[in-house]
């Protein structure tokens, strides 16, 4: 009998870990090449994993919801309908999930070397990144962490608590892990407050957190304006189009008129893009995504409306691919559907010069706030931008080709 | 600058020193009429005559002892032992006499003795002629051990050894005699024990000596293509060792690999790794590793022989393993 490992696939170029959302087959089930056997969650999307050849799914399968590094084994394909091999030894898994570094070390000690038959399961159990350093720090079990002398010295110099550093797969902390921890945002002191439990971040929450944290170095200024929304809303109603789509179209045309707003700051110069791609913030249970409509000023509205419909469908089904949500040159965040919202500021994602935040319309007018990267555009530029936008909103006819 | 063979650089160094100082003379088996097993004394017999280029019987103990005696009375003998394997017969003269007399006489007797010998694994010379016994001489206080890896160093270090009043073992390598390299006879020599960085790197300090320098440089080249930047330090001297140069490199790379042709157990690399671990403990980001020969008398069979000592690819593998945190032997 031969067992071939199924590994965590790389679904986007930023993906370093993934989670199995669910197994669509059970151990022992016959599968055909190309058949879906599992669903895997990457940075933002859920994707299907297909069998790479005919065979039988074999355990131990990695538990759904557990974060696994790309390339790690998540299950096996067998050429025979095997009895399920022992499940990743439950006792041990529980022990390490409880967070004892001792339990982890134990499973690695030579006396505990498992018999060869169980080695696949054991290897998997060992690799499970079950113990989060945060967990055992909280339980106060200060086991001695395996760190290189240089890593310890660095941690001391940088004021990094080794208990909060995520070690390598081998369970060792080296300089690179300390530096990574030092660059992570500070950990709040929760011990002073009420008891708590940690909910792990979903891949999407993590991606949003990373993207938003990355914006803190952008010098932003904001300019607000109360603009008449009635003509645009009426037009949207009449054409049976989404108001957000028409707003994005108005923004894109305005950007074309003020091309500085299509630039991105880089330390080597301003990246002046040839096309206006608008990222639109979309509310989603447990997160936020910004699907991107390409060439928003240069294509017929009907085409854009169809693209928007497809993107929203993908968002709803959580099938958005990386190319669907990256590379915007301008952003729009519309909270106009919430009548309580007067106005708000949006955070400006890296790679764009401005983002427009739209509040709810009151007596025909809504408050719009443009947050701009001051390295790219200046106050008067923003004022001129809003002037032009105002003209478009007053006469939405020109948006409709 | 001229490119010369390693043996020729040694030959030029002997010639220069014999011409400069009449008290310098060479002795050993086949050094005179025959010109030396590896041509190092070629032409010297004709130029300086049989008093200063002395053929000896096959008796390492006695002619090395003769060298010690001559040094005691003010001569500057250069003893050639045909290979390091035969120097086992001369250990009493080297270890008990040469290394001790200056100390036991309270400094009254200097010991300007040079003992030259090739060592290392060559091409199918079998177990008794393929030894690397440098660790034996390293463990003798009172001796100096130099290991030139290039013609330039051969020229510099042999001349420095002859001019020194301390007993010095000059370890050459049988496969280096016919390697070529630039020689600048005018260039100013660095101190005899000073280590040299042969290649700058950022990720890993590779400390090595003698023939393994060349193999390590070629491995570093290969690793550079994979994005691994290796700094190669040529020790040039095994007693004393220039620890500061090694430590400086480790402070930059935070990783140490020692490469030696000798078998690992209690070999030269053991001392190098231990001392550097003591000195650089807080700089190290991974355990220091030694990559050396197998724990075996070297087999005669050529295929087995080449598997018993480090090669370019095994050195590259050891470097990858060290940086990747995996055990050696695993395919990276």
Describe the structure.
- The complex is a heterodimer of chains A (401) and B (332).
- Chain A is of the alpha+beta class and 401 residues long.
- Chain A is 30% helix and 22% strand.
- Chain A has twelve helices and 18 strands.
- The radius of gyration of chain A is 26 Å and the shape is globular.
- Chain B has 332 residues and is α/β, with parallel strands linked by helices.
- Chain B has twelve helices and 14 strands.
- In chain B, strand 6 (144-146), helix 7 (151-163) and strand 7 (168-173) form a beta-alpha-beta unit.
- The chains are: A alpha+beta (401), B alpha/beta (332).
- At the A-B interface, helix 5 of A face loops of B.
Strand order of the largest sheet of chain A: 9-18-17-16-12-15
- Secondary-structure class of chain B: alpha/beta
Order of helices and strands of chain A: EEEEEEEEHHHHHHHEHHEEEEEEHHEEEH
Strand content of chain A: 15-25%
Mean pLDDT of chain B: 95
Specify the oligomeric state: heterodimer
Strand-residue proportion of chain B: 15-25%
**CATH architecture label name of the largest domain in chain B:** 3-Layer(aba) Sandwich
Count of helical regions of chain B: 12
Give start-end ranges of low-pLDDT stretches of chain B.
Answer: 326-332
> What is the CATH C level class of the largest domain in chain B, in words?
Alpha Beta
Give the overall form of chain B.
globular
For this entry, give a set of tags.
heterodimer, A: 401 residues, alpha+beta, OB fold (Dihydrolipoamide Acetyltransferase, E2P), Dihydrolipoamide Transferase, Chloramphenicol Acetyltransferase, six-stranded mixed beta sheet, 12 helices, 18 strands, globular, B: 332 residues, alpha/beta, Rossmann fold, 2 domains, five-stranded mixed beta sheet, 14 strands, 36% helix
SSE layout and pairing:
The complex is a heterodimer of chains A (401) and B (332).
Chain A: E1 3-7, E2 17-23, E3 30-31, E4 36-41, E5 46-50, E6 55-58, E7 67-69, E8 73-78, H1 90-97, H2 101-106, H3 119-127, H4 133-138, H5 149-158, H6 175-183, H7 203-213, E9 220-228, H8 230-239, H9 243-257, E10 263-266, E11 269-272, E12 278-280, E13 282-284, E14 287-289, E15 292-293, H10 301-316, H11 322-325, E16 330-334, E17 354-362, E18 365-373, H12 379-394
Parallel strand pairs in A: 12-16, 16-17
Antiparallel strand pairs in A: 1-8, 2-4, 2-7, 3-6, 4-5, 6-8, 9-18, 10-11, 12-15, 13-14, 17-18
Helix pairs in contact in A: 5-6, 9-12
Chain B: E1 2-5, H1 6-20, E2 24-28, H2 44-48, E3 53-55, H3 60-72, E4 76-80, H4 91-98, H5 101-104, E5 114-119, H6 134-138, E6 144-146, H7 151-163, E7 168-173, E8 180-183, E9 196-199, E10 204-208, H8 211-225, E11 230-234, E12 237-239, H9 243-253, E13 256-263, H10 268-280, E14 289-293, H11 302-307, H12 312-324
Parallel strand pairs in B: 2-3, 2-4, 4-5, 5-7, 6-7, 10-11, 10-13, 13-14
Antiparallel strand pairs in B: 1-8, 6-12, 9-11
Helix pairs in contact in B: 1-7, 3-4, 8-12, 9-10
């Amino acid at each position: 009998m031969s067992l071939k490992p199924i590994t965590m696939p790389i679904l986007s170029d930023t993906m370093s870990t993934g989670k199995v959302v669910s197994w669509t087959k059970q151990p022992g089930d016959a599968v055909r090449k190309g058949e879906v056997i599992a669903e895997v969650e990457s940075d933002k999307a859920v994707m299907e994993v297909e069998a790479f050849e005919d065979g039988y799914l074999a355990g131990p399968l990695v538990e759904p919801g557990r974060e696994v590094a790309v390339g790690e084994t998540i299950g096996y394909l067998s050429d025979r309908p095997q009895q399920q091999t022992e499940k990743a030894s439950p006792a041990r898994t529980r022990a390490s999930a409880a967070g004892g570094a001792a339990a982890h070390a134990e499973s690695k000690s030579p006396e505990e070397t498992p018999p060869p038959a169980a080695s696949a399961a054991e290897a998997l159990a060992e690799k499970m990144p079950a113990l989060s350093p945060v967990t055992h720090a909280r339980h106060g079990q200060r086991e001695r962490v395996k760190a290189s002398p240089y890593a310890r010295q660095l941690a001391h110099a940088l004021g990094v608590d080794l208990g909060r550093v995520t070690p390598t797969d081998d369970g060792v902390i080296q300089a690179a892990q300390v530096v990574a921890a030092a660059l992570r945002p500070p950990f709040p002191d929760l011990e002073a407050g009420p008891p708590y439990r940690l909910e792990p971040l979903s891949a999407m929450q993590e991606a949003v957190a990373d993207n938003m944290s990355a914006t803190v170095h952008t010098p932003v200024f904001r300019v607000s304006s109360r603009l008449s929304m009635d003509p645009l809303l009426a037009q949207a109603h009449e054409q049976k189009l989404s108001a957000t789509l028409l707003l994005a179209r108005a923004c894109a045309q305005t950007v074309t008129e003020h091309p500085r707003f299509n630039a991105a700051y880089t330390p080597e110069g301003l990246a002046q893009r040839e096309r206006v791609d608008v990222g639109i913030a979309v509310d989603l249970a447990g997160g936020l995504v910004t699907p991107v409509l390409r060439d928003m000023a240069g294509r017929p509205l009907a085409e854009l409306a169809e693209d928007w419909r497809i993107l929203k469908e993908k968002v709803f089904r959580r099938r958005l691919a990386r190319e669907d949500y990256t590379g915007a040159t301008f952003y729009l965040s519309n909270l106009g559907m919430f009548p309580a919202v007067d106005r708000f500021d949006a955070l400006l994602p890296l790679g764009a010069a401005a983002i427009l935040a739209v509040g709810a319309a009151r007596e025909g007018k809504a408050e719009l706030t443009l947050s701009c990267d001051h390295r790219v555009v200046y106050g008067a530029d923003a004022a001129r931008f809003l002037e032009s936008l105002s003209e478009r909103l007053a006469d939405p006819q020109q948006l409709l080709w | 600058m001229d490119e010369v063979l390693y043996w020729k650089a040694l030959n030029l160094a002997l010639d220069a020193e014999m011409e400069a100082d009449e008290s310098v003379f060479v002795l050993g088996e086949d050094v005179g009429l025959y010109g030396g097993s590896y041509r190092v004394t070629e032409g010297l017999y004709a130029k300086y005559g049989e008093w200063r280029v002395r053929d000896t019987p096959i008796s390492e103990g006695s002619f090395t002892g003769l060298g010690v005696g001559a040094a005691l009375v003010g001569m500057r003998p250069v003893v050639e032992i045909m290979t390091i394997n035969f120097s086992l017969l001369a250990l009493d003269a080297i270890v008990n006499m040469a290394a001790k007399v200056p100390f036991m006489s309270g400094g009254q007797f200097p010991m300007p003795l040079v003992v030259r010998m090739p060592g290392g694994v060559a091409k199918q010379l079998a177990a008794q002629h393929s030894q690397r016994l440098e660790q034996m001489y390293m463990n003798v206080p009172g001796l100096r051990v130099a290991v030139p890896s290039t013609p330039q160093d051969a020229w510099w270090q042999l001349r420095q050894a002859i001019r020194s009043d301390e007993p010095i073992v000059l370890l050459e390598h049988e496969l280096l005699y016919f390697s070529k390299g630039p020689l600048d006879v005018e260039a100013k020599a660095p101190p005899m024990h000073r280590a040299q960085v042969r290649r700058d790197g950022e990720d890993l300090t590779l400390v090595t000596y003698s023939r393994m320098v060349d193999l390590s440089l070629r491995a570093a080249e290969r690793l550079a293509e994979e994005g691994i930047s290796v700094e190669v330090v040529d020790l040039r001297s095994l007693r004393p060792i220039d620890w500061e140069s090694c430590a400086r490199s480790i402070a930059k790379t935070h990783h140490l690999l020692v490469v030696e042709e000798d078998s690992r157990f209690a070999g030269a690399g053991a001392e190098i790794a231990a001392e550097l671990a003591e000195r650089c403990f807080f700089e190290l980001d991974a355990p220091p590793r030694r990559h050396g020969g197998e724990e075996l008398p070297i087999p005669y069979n050529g295929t087995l022989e080449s598997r018993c000592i480090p090669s370019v690819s095994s050195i590259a593998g050891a470097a990858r393993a060290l940086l990747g945190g995996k055990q050696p032997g695993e395919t990276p």
